[in-house]
């Protein structure tokens, strides 16, 4: 087991008081695994243990009832732990043949695959699916889309198109869907293409591979609510749904990103016609490397996956001191390899 954490956590989620951690190491793509740690009543976590293994870079994870869904390269897997020992004893690839690609930047980095999973208000799972190419769309009908499906992986439908590499997605308290999208590598071809934060509307096109950022007048491409340039490479994000933080509202969206190692908070407010980002601030800085995911726990606190250090941090509120402080899952031993 990995003491004190989980190596290269890519995505985290809670199912009740169980924290699921997807782990995927660069260069060891078959060694992707899911670990679990239980949140105890005193606020501590049990040492992470392996729930399931054998995933080719898992990057999306979602617990619905007794089923854990994991996205990895080309597939979505449904897992169950039938006897409650925190080890999955049933694994079924409920979707196969999803697009994924490979590009080379500074050596070899595998990118663009199926990523985020979220349960919609209609009871379907919504999935953010990257394009298998860096600058063009692939032939697969789900390439560069957000699609939805039944809990058993059936009845897949495209919900919106024109995404390059949307890492994560979430619904807000009004039942509207939002997703980030990562822009292409900036060079002479795309010198100023930004990353995006989008309100995702059914049947609409979000521009990729021809339009990045704000579309020209008259275009039917949906304009992002917010862009980042220079790029930040957004990864995980979620809408806060209420709880112990006194100053937060259900309009607050938390986001981590790969480049600048911070947690951002956006306040995303419906003005009667569309959404506006009325606040945008960095709430946590100073990770030693990229953060990959941020979620809300059943205790209402915020949990952050620190990819480089192999740790999960807890962001909580101390009224007496009005500060926040990190806390590790699984005790204070050394980080994973
Ligand atoms: Ca089991
Ligand atoms: Ca776009």
């Amino acid at each position: 087991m990995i003491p004190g954490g989980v190596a290269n956590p890519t995505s985290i989620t809670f199912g009740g008081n169980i924290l699921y951690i997807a782990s995927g190491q660069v260069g060891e793509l078959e060694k992707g695994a899911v670990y679990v740690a239980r949140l105890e009543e005193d606020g501590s976590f049990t040492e992470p243990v392996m729930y399931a293994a054998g995933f080719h870079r898992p990057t999306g994870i979602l617990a619905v009832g007794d089923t854990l869904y994991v996205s990895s390269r080309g597939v979505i897997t449904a897992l169950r732990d039938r006897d409650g020992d925190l080890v999955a004893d049933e694994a079924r690839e409920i979707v196969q043949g999803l697009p994924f690609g490979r590009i080379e930047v500074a050596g070899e980095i595998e990118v663009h695959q199926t990523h985020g999973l979220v349960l919609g208000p209609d009871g379907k799972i919504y999935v953010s699916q990257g394009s298998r190419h860096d600058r063009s769309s692939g032939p697969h009908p789900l390439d560069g889309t957000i699609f939805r499906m039944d809990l058993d992986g059936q009845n897949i439908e495209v919900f919106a198109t024109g995404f390059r590499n949307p890492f994560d997605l979430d619904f807000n308290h009004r039942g509207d869907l939002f997703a980030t999208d990562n822009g292409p590598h900036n060079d002479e071809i795309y010198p100023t293409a930004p990353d995006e934060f989008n309100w995702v509307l059914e049947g609409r096109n979000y521009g990729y591979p021809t339009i990045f950022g704000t579309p020209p007048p008259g275009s039917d491409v949906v304009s992002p609510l917010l862009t980042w340039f220079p790029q930040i490479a957004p990864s995980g994000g979620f809408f806060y749904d209420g709880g112990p933080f006194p100053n937060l509202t259900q309009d607050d969206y938390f986001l981590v990103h790969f480049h600048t190692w911070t947690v951002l908070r956006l306040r995303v407010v419906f003005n009667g016609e569309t959404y506006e980002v009325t606040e945008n601030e960095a709430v946590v800085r100073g990770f030693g490397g990229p953060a990959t995911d941020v979620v809300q726990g059943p205790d209402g606190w915020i949990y952050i996956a620190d990819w480089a250090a192999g740790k999960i941090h807890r962001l909580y509120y101390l009224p007496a001191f009005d500060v926040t402080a990190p806390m590790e899952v699984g005790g204070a031993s050394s980080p994973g390899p």
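The chain has no helices and 25 strands. The longest strand covers residues 28-38.
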